[in-house]
Amino acid sequence: MKPIFTITEGMLPVSTSYCPGCTHGISHRIVMECLDEAGKLGEAIGVAPIGCSVVSHQFMNVDMLESAHGRAPAVATGIRRVHPDKVIFTYQGDGDLASIGMSEIIHAANRGETFTTFFINNAIYGMTGGQMAPTTLVGQKSTTSPDGRDPGAVGMPMRMSELIASLDGAVYVERVALDTPAHVRQAKKAVAAALEIQEKRLGFTFVEFLSTCPTNWGLTPANALKFVEEKLIPYYPLGVFKTPERKEEAV
Amino acid sequence: MAKFTLQFRMEYCKGCELCVASCPKHILAIGDEIGAKGYRTVTATDMELCIGCRSCALMCPDNVIEIYTEGD
Amino acid sequence: MTDKVLMKGNEAFAETAIRAGCGYYFGYPITPQSEIPEYMARELDRRGGAFLQAESELGAVNMAYGAGAAGGSVFISSSSPGIALMQEGLSFLCCAGVPATVLNVSRCGPGIGGIQPGQADYFQATRGGGNGDYHVFVFAPDRLQEAVDLIYEAPLIADRYRNPVMILADGMLGQMMEPIVLPEQRPLIKPADIPAYKPWTVTGKADRGGKRNVVQSLYMQPEDLSRHVEEMYANYTRAEKELARYEADGLEGAEIVFVAFGTTARLCRETIELLGDRGVKAGLIRPVSLWPFPYRAFDEVGPDTKAVVSVELSMGQMMEDVKIGVNGRKPVRLIHRVGGLVPTSVEVMDEAIAILEGI
User: Fold this and answer.
1) Domain boundaries in chain C?
2) A221–B53: do the CB atoms touch at under 8 Å?
């Protein structure tokens, strides 16, 4: 028997704490597969955020540290100063990165820090129980926008990839989705590309994953995938916003 | 004899059905078996139809599915 | 090396931190310590380290956390309101066991306060301004040479206990010039040497043959967090025995004993001479470590002492520790100024005499 799909040793042999159908597990696996295939699991240092994935270090089989809410890019910046030769990444959700950590991510990107940020955008705060995120869609209900997000009161959902891509320090920015097998394949290509560019130390690399939160969206896992396709992708278009070769084409 | 074999690491299955939803041949289903996590777990109904597309494994958030094919 | 040099306080602090082997500095401009990031910007990279101006003090302390967790010897500095922003990080550093050397060139508060010297960060430094049960080790020099010596020692203490060490120097020390002897340059640690020197750090698991390291401060199980905090406090109990430091002068036969740290201790020494000229014998207890506080110093206060007087540029913060140390054996009084005012030695003398007359 020949294996055509096996679980990477980058994922520890434990059950994750994520809800059934949460796509955190997919993005975890993709990141670890890419590090594994590049032979870099032993060289990697990951920074976990605050949010559901604060415990991602219990599942990702690499050296990791926890960071305070939103500060992962500052923490990774510090690590890079000490270890110019390692693979460094942050893994952050939308509340962590786009709300409380906006200052840290923007300045790290603008400096062209040579680590990779994996941004999990599921348009809601998961761990604290479904509150409105900076990326919550207009009209989307959450426990702190019970009548739906009102842009007149709280502004429009923030498109982080476009924002990051506008900074000169960012050299690779791509938004992918985890709603279909084809999109998952593309997501893995994006992660591999970002890590490859990190190896060249050209600047900041950023991959945004449109992800799900079936529990707090109040949808079945399968219907949550449809929500990504029908609601998230139209507002958050998929694609490559920046590459080292196409810096001038930034949004 | 089926061309592909799915190996389920049932102790991780949460019965979320993302594999079921993504299978183009509709040969996956949530069965009656209760797994270690207390969820009903996935089962394959007709492996003869499996085309080894990996969609189920790609969409599984819990590292349940490994896929093998005949030969070496 | 015995370079005897005349240096401004802030520049001496920065130079000493480099010589102490602190290869990583993350800073943000704030008066009265902006000469420190400026000095680091000029010096650190060309001497093999790395300087970075952070986007904020929050950024700076979290960069220090990352660099420290990755095995670098880190130095950060700020002044009172900036140190307030760093409290989130200090709680993290303590809980996660990440060493760092932190310098507060303090000014007066609360709020924006003023940029004149102050000592009202005593509670912030010794009680912890962040969340949870933790302590930062705090040392308060009263002259530049002592500040240099403490900054040079701080990374060793921080590494030994895996806990941040704070040097609390008021703005006066940062801005004054005094002749000092700078210590020898300690080698900056190379990345390849980190795993052997600090085996707990995150450097990539290949450095440990695949054994994974995680630096964390989250413990979801109450039993686990309880055990971790108890372990932290076993470390702190050891520090209380090993790190409590003070100077005591003229306690024997003293009618009045001043307690002062930092630059107010200098003032008290002048006052003690003035009082001596008037036939009043006065002594001084100068805590060098503010946490752990040297409570045992007060066992030396003798039967002739009528009052113990805390002299502070605050509304009487250290006085709480003085009261614990005195433990009801003597009256404890306060001589203080706030807002950036500093009393003269004559003013302190007059107030001390009034205290003695009132007892």
Assistant:
1) 4-194, 247-358
2) no
Classify the complex by whether its ipTM is higher than 0.95, answering yes or no. Answer: yes
HSE (side-chain half, CA atoms, 13 Å) at C289: 21
Q: What are B62's two structure tokens?
A: 């819990």
At C34, the amino acid letter reads S
What residue has token string 């510090």?
A: A78
What pLDDT, in 10s, does the model give residues B9-61?
999 999 999 999 999 999 999 999 998 889 999 999 999 999 999 999 999 99
What's the token pair of residue A175?
A: 């938004």
Between the alpha carbon of residue C13 and those of residues A105, A124, C141, C151, C220, the distances in Å are 31, 46, 12, 7, 40
* Interface with chain A: mutation pick from C63, C197, C207, highest number of A CBs within 10 Å: C63
Q: Using CA atoms, how far apart are residues B62 and A6, in angstroms rounded to an integer?
A: 12
Q: What is the pLDDT of residue C1?
A: 54
Chains C and A are in contact, defined as 3 or more C-beta pairs closer than 8 angstroms: yes
Q: Show the tokens assigned to C343.
A: 């009393």
Nearest to A25 among B54, B61, B69 (CB): B61
pLDDT of residue A187: 98
Residues in C lying within 8 Å of A, measured between beta carbons = 24, 26, 50, 52, 54-56, 58-60, 62-72, 74, 88-89, 92, 96, 191, 194, 202-207, 210, 212-218, 220
In which domain, by residue range, is B51 found? Answer: 4-69
CATH code for C247-358? 3.40.50.920
Q: How much is the pLDDT for A250? A: 47
In the predicted model, residues of chain C with pLDDT beneath 70 are 1-2
Residue B37, domain CATH? 3.30.70.20
Domain ranges of chain A: 24-249
Q: What is the mean pLDDT of chain C?
A: 97
* C241-287 tens-digit pLDDT: 999 999 999 999 999 999 999 999 999 999 999 999 999 999 999 99
Q: According to CATH, what is the number of the domain C4-194?
A: 3.40.50.970
The SS3 call for residue C204 is coil
Q: What is the DSSP letter of A138?
A: B
Q: Rounded distance, CA C105 to CA A118, Å?
A: 38
Does CATH number 3.40.50.970 belong to domain A24-249? yes
Query: Residue A76 and residue C58: Cβ atoms within 8 Å?
Result: no
Q: Per the structure block, which two tokens stand in for C104? A: 């507060």
Q: Is the pLDDT of residue A6 over 90?
A: yes
Q: What is the mean pLDDT of chain A?
A: 97
- The answer to whether B15 and B30 have CB atoms below 8 angstroms apart is yes
- Cβ-defined contact of A4 to B67 (cutoff 8 Å): yes
Report d(CA C301, CA C295) in Å as an integer. 11
Whether the predicted pLDDT of A251 surpasses 80:
no
State the smallest CA–CA distance between residue A110 and chain B in angstroms. 33
How many domains in chain B?
1
Query: Do residues C254 and C281 make contact, with C-beta atoms less than 8 angstroms apart?
Result: yes
C-alpha closest to that of C68 among A77, A20, A136, A171: A77
